[in-house]
Amino acid sequence: MALTALLLGAPANALSPPADTVDELVAQLRDDPILVQPSMGMGDSAAAHDVLAEAAADVGVPVYVVLADTPADLAGTDSIAEQAAALFRAELGDGLYHVEFREGISYTRSWGGGELDEAYLAPVTFALERAESSGPGEYPQASALLEAVLTLRWAAAPLEELPDAMVDEYAAQPWAFLADSDYDRADATAGRRVAVLATSFGLLVAGVIVTLVVARAAPAGRGDVRRRLADQRSRAADRKRAASAGQQQVASAGATLSDPPSRVGPTRTGRGAPTTAVPADIAATATRQLDEARRRLASLSAERLTSPAGTTAADAVEAGDRVLATGDPLDAVGATVLAAIAVREVERTGSPKRPPYRPCFVDPLHGEARDTVRLEGSSIDAPACRDCARSPYAFLAVRRRFRGWAPYTETSTIWARTGFGALVGDLPAQVLDDRSGRR
């Protein structure tokens, strides 16, 4: 009798054998939109299911959650979670999808045209950072279950930050963190150091040695994610009452991704090269461009989506979303480049002879590099836009905490190492590796 009661109270997916293909996952999701396999249930997949179902009940759209082993038919491919989410949506319809497999990173996407489609995931990032800052062990890492629960709680009120008390309550649960593994993290750290040294050595051998004097000019605002959330609320209100503002948004959305946003005039560093500050509205520009890239990616057939160009496009969108959530101005610039890469790769799924997108090395906001420029103090020609190739150029600059303004090439970032993708052919993969390593 006890066994019968237990079986009757169990979720439908708990009574089915673990799905091993996308089609099998879809079949189980039709019966129960919350799917947690034992390998991802932190010791109790039935309890994990109930926690997620309770959180999903407050979301105003259909919710599908998949925490599972990697499907056999997607194993070995890139951006597995994003591919799966697109395939699930094609079969199950619009809604909020949160997908994470044991191999790879999570993917969250809403389809349906509501405010959730345009909302930032930044509150979830804030919540995870708060949870991990006081988690157990030397390197606490949030579980996939904790991330999924916080994502669903965010989806119920996407324009608000998650309450600290709620985050702390979930973080105190026994399933909130993965078991600590110092060995794995040490291996990852060593691998990243080797990669950085190899990249730096390659650039030195190639002759890219750029020495520029630090600039001290008028400050430009550093993008702050909390401020962007407030801006998002304001934009939502504006869309409801301002027809003229709506026309401007349509015009902005229709702009070519290679077109730069409003520029700040170049300011000279005094004794060095001129620089151009990152525009104050760069986060909004990156958001629009990533949304356009996402729209185009979603329109691909399953065959094109899983092609090399399609998977690169998916990687670029995923990488763009991750860096945009940090609120850092250089990361927002990188998001615009990743959006442009994604759009070009979507186009290359049907026209493979089109060249991959490479930005202007001097200032990636100038758009695509169609020429080269000899950099001062360097022995090679860097990819550049026609304007930078034909006239004195001004490096994109960012404000440093103690030393004032400096060209982005003097920062210790992936953007400096890769020239925002001008110097490498696999920027999305490098960005995802860089960001995964940080966590």
TrEMBL record:
It comes from Jiangella anatolica. This is Uncharacterized protein. The chain crosses the membrane at residues 194-218. The keyword Membrane applies. Residues 243-255, 264-278 have a biased composition (Low complexity). Residues 224-241 have a biased composition (Basic and acidic residues). Residues 224-283 are annotated as: Disordered. It comes from the Bacteria. Keywords: Membrane, Transmembrane, Transmembrane helix.
